[in-house]
Design a protein that fits this description.
Elements lengths: L15 H15 L6 H8 L3 H5 L5 H14 L10 H18 L1 H9 L5 H16 L4 H7 L1
Helix pairs in contact: 1-2, 5-6, 5-7, 7-8
């Protein structure tokens, strides 16, 4: 058992990006079921209330993580054939899922209704349309 005491982070040094980085680290080590704001605070060396100044809830934090990860997926060059673009987009999604395996299930089951996620989803559906699939079939294939 680790009995060392972590030093508290100096006031005002916490950022959303730092919290998101630490949250992904905790999720990868503890799993989604083992995640808590207390564990996140311990990872950051602060009180849980400090996190709530940046994210009002764990759900809000998870929404930010989904946005961050989906936002890191690159949409391929529009000049490429649609199949190559779709393959590239799927492989980049797979890269993100492999980099964050404990969060991947949440990523694919969470409602993606933020502007970042909707832009990505519309891009994917546009690739199906470019391939000649109608909107309904494209949505089902997705």
């Amino acid at each position: 058992m680790d009995t060392s005491i972590k030093k508290k982070r100096p006031r005002g040094r916490l950022s959303r990006e730092m919290i998101e980085d630490a949250a992904l680290k905790v999720i990868e080590s503890e799993g989604l079921a083992g995640f808590s704001m207390r564990k996140l605070a311990a990872e950051l060396g602060c009180e849980a209330m400090s996190i709530y100044h940046h994210f009002p809830s764990a759900a809000n934090l998870f929404e930010a993580l989904v946005d961050r990860l989906i936002g890191s997926i690159e949409m391929p060059d529009a000049d490429l054939p649609w199949r190559q673009r779709l393959r590239s987009a799927v492989l980049d999604f797979r890269r993100v899922a492999r980099e964050h395996p404990a969060f991947a299930t949440f990523l694919v089951t969470y409602r993606m209704n933020s502007p970042t996620c909707l832009t990505w989803l519309n891009g994917i559906l546009g690739l199906f349309e470019a391939g000649g699939f109608g909107p309904e079939l494209g949505a089902r294939l997705f």
